[in-house]
Design brief:
The protein is of the alpha+beta class and about 200 residues long. It has one domain: Glutaredoxin. It has eight helices and four strands, in the order E-H-E-H-H-H-H-H-H-E-E-H. It has a four-stranded mixed sheet with strand order 2-1-3-4, with helices on both faces. Strand 3 and strand 4 form a beta hairpin. Helix 3 runs parallel beside helix 5 and helix 3 crosses helix 7.
Amino acid sequence: MEGLKLYFDYKSPFAYLAKDPAFELGDRFRIDLRWIPFVLRIKDKGERSVYSERKVRYSYMDARRWANRRGGLRILGPRKVYDSRPALVGALFATHHGFFRAYTDAVFSRFFERTLEIDEPGAIAGLVEELGASGDAYERFRVGTGSVELEACLDEADRDSVFGVPTFVFRGELFWGHDRMPMLEERMTEAGLGL
């Protein structure tokens, strides 16, 4: 199995759009997909230029257009700038405990429906419990080894020159954005990894 990295952040609508197609890659290619948390650094409303504000509005409009092509995933813009670290550490916890897919599905959909605050550890612990694991164990992991693991992921992203999400890394080549997935699939096909 060939390794394929996917850097993601739960607050990215484009990472949300990449989620299901990324999970399906294993059905078509001999790859070992590794999901790696990445913290997008987004400026708050008062810190952005008028051009950056326009770009943010456009990005959400564009994400909704893509979502509509996929059957209308609900993507509501966030009400504030989120520090997604609690949810990303939750992803690492869910990976260790075997429920990453269920967790990721829930976090993405609930965040973009505005029913989950990804920056609140208590909300993440509640979701972890809802999915059958221990919220207390998540909290211990979050303040202990989980934060160390997340920093290691961010260091790895730096070494891979990641600047945004979703970013796939295949044999050292970066593919940024869910709309680059067909190009990624071409590379994997050329590498003889198709099933």
